[in-house]
């Protein structure tokens, strides 16, 4: 791949949120510390008073932030991951739904070769190890837009593991110094997308559109090597460019083709990591940066006021510029993972059963 393209990430303005002493490092993705200059153009949270995070008064401790990302990219393919239904944005509701997508009894999945090829290409571009054998699992949870009551994904043995993503950031008082940073990639996996819930508040009802159900997704799991919102947004923009250059995903965030979940926690340097929260379904790099920065500051404020951080899922309200609770965070045991074995054993390798739709 070509050298990473420079994006507008200015760590100097929001480094106070990670609060690393000058000359120290936190995690593999951290750079040497710089203090906030308070210049115009700061992110939403960076504009707020950060007395505790910016300057540690005598007897007070500084905070370190830890950010990891789960990035879901829709694969460019004519059909869905396990069915022959076509994939089109903005098609009439429920017009692209096969019997398998609707989870009717007796239907079986058939794996789309194009989706596997796209995952392998992406893994190679991101310096991953490609597993010669890869398995699918059933992840059980119950929502109205998931007709089967489970999602076909990869938990135990994904298609690619142990990669890296390099990106460039600006640091320093005037953001003139450019450094290249690297975030580790834990794994890349194939999985089904869910349907879409359309909430009609005027009539107090929710409508379900299953056109998106079963569309092939690449989930790229980044290790928690980042420490602020702008840094995470820069990594996502870099990945977006790579996916578009490969042709594996259009990665149009406005159309929901690239969605990000951010896992965020804070702790005192040298102490164990704190309790994390997850901010779901962020479909804009700018909103991603704002949501992470807000959540870091919220957790710091909660802990300094003697409160506890709950392991929960939150969403970002872009109108209010804050995160709001959605539900308690499910543990792995709640998903009741099952290895997906059927007549054809869906694994990659000799004898794999594919369909050849592109």
From TrEMBL:
Pfam families: GatB_N. SUPFAM superfamilies: Glutamine synthetase/guanido kinase. One of its GO terms (biological process) is glutaminyl-tRNAGln biosynthesis via transamidation. GO terms for cellular component: glutamyl-tRNA(Gln) amidotransferase complex; mitochondrion. GO terms for molecular function: ATP binding; glutaminyl-tRNA synthase (glutamine-hydrolyzing) activity. It comes from the Eukaryota. The keyword Nucleotide-binding applies. Residues 66-337 form the Aspartyl/Glutamyl-tRNA(Gln) amidotransferase subunit B/E catalytic domain. Keywords: ATP-binding, Ligase, Nucleotide-binding, Protein biosynthesis. This is Glutamyl-tRNA amidotransferase subunit B. The lineage of its organism: Eukaryota, Metazoa, Chordata, Craniata, Vertebrata. The gene is GATB.
